[in-house]
Amino acid sequence: MPLVHRRRWLLALVMVLTFPVAVWAALPAGAADPAQDVEEIARWIRERQDGAAPAPLLPCAWPAPGHAEVTSPFGYRLHPVLKRFRLHAGLDIGAPEGAAAAACWDGVVIAVAELPAYGRVVVLDHGGGLATVYAHLSAVRVSEGDRVPQGDEVGWVGVTGQVTGPHLHFEVWLDGRPVDPLRFADMAGLSY
């Protein structure tokens, strides 16, 4: 490997290893760290998911019916509130406050909570190692243990948690890790 590539690789490794400490140390006063909410969600999924349930066979229904603008995709980005570079573990879907947030597959509610950065949250287990997260909800329509059919409302879009405006934050977790929801959704008609 040429020396220039080794230097770039070493610099990237140092940044990856030190970045979380630098970001934590530099959080604005009173700001909630979304990474802590992600850890809490990971714990819920690990502890409450039914590993024996089969995976869904139907494609994922769009979680914000009638609203197809992805305002922030899955992946690393500059956080709009914290002004720090970090993993965005889901999609932000632009929608007005009060718009429906719907289950993308049949599922069982494994968590309903309020988190500092994610606001009001619903987590559904869909079987086969799949779970979904619906965040920044203004209100929740379901309770833990409820069975929710695909397309039924789990809550309504809001501005809870750390947000710059109303939207649905939607995550898909596979085998305990967040993955790009667009791997499972029909992308026809989406806009960025």
Provide a descriptive summary of the structure in words.
Residues 16-27 have low confidence and may be disordered. The protein has one domain: Glucose Permease (Domain IIA), CATH 2.70.70.10. The chain contains two helices and twelve strands; from the N terminus they run H-H-E-E-E-E-E-E-E-E-E-E-E-E. The chain has 192 residues and is an alpha+beta fold. The chain has helices at 3-25, 34-48, and strands at residues 69-72, 75-78, 85-88, 91-94, 100-102, 107-115, 119-127, 130-140, 147-148, 153-157, 167-174, 177-179. The strands form two sheets. Strands 1, 4, 5, 6, 7, 8, 9, 10, 11 and 12 form a ten-stranded antiparallel sheet that branches. The protein has a two-stranded antiparallel ribbon with strand order 2-3. 20% of the residues lie in helices and 34% in strands. The radius of gyration is 17 Å and the shape is globular.
Summarize the structure.
This protein has 192 residues and is an alpha+beta fold. Helices cover 20% and strands 34% of the residues. The strands form 2 sheets. Strands 1, 4, 5, 6, 7, 8, 9, 10, 11 and 12 form a 10-stranded antiparallel β-sheet that branches. A two-stranded antiparallel ribbon has the order 2-3.
What does the largest sheet look like?
10 strands, antiparallel
Class by helix and strand content? alpha+beta
CATH superfamily: Glucose Permease (Domain IIA)
Terminus-to-terminus distance: 38 Å
